[in-house]
Design a protein that fits this description.
Helix content: over 70%
Largest sheet: none
Number of strands: 0
Length: 189
């Protein structure tokens, strides 16, 4: 029974410490907090302020922003985003103007291209008609006419002619001119 008496003495001492020391201490802390809170002193803010300065305790203390700080931060973010949106809208407008200019240039170039194609077709048709005239013409007269034309024009007309007609006309030309035109004909093949 000696063991039972020792256990009851230990639990008795623990109860005595709990009822005499711990409970009154907790009651005193609660009453002090209540009085200071009614007096307008917030001990939690003070503890947080000093707790942030202590290296180990700093990690335990929450570092939450106040509502005003959050509002200011969000307002700044919104302002930054609005500036970015404005800048991007300006960039979009510039790009749209650039696209519009390029589309206009493209239309103008297409128009010039169409006109050039039409002109080229007309020139081709005219060359074909003229070369047909050379087929029906006397080779000596055709040779005299071709010798007096620019080289490129004479070359284009000779390209349109059938081989036998071309040969007859080249035979009636000045040998140097005929040689030069034959050389150009070979380069274009």
């Amino acid at each position: 029974m000696a063991k039972g008496e020792k256990n009851s003495e230990k639990t008795g001492k623990i109860k005595w410490i709990f009822f005499i020391v711990v409970i009154p201490f907790l009651f005193a802390v609660a009453v002090t907090l209540l009085i200071l809170t009614v007096a307008g002193i917030n001990l939690f803010d003070i503890a947080e302020k000093y707790g942030k300065e202590i290296p180990v305790v700093r990690e335990w203390v929450s570092q939450e922003e106040s509502a005003e700080e959050q509002l200011d931060r969000y307002k700044k973010m919104v302002s930054d985003y609005e500036q970015e949106i404005t800048s991007l809208n300006q960039t979009i407008e510039e790009k749209e103007r650039s696209i519009s200019k390029l589309e206009n240039q493209l239309q103008e170039l297409n128009l010039v291209l169409d006109q050039t194609k039409e002109k080229s077709i007309n020139i081709e048709e005219a060359m074909t008609n003229i070369s047909q005239s050379f087929v029906e013409m006397d080779p000596i007269n055709a040779a005299n006419i071709l010798e007096k034309l620019e080289e490129q024009t004479a070359l284009k007309l000779l390209e349109k002619l059938p081989n036998d007609t071309r040969g007859n006309i080249l035979a009636k030309m000045d040998p140097e001119v005929a040689a030069r035109l034959t050389e150009l004909l070979l380069q274009n093949l």
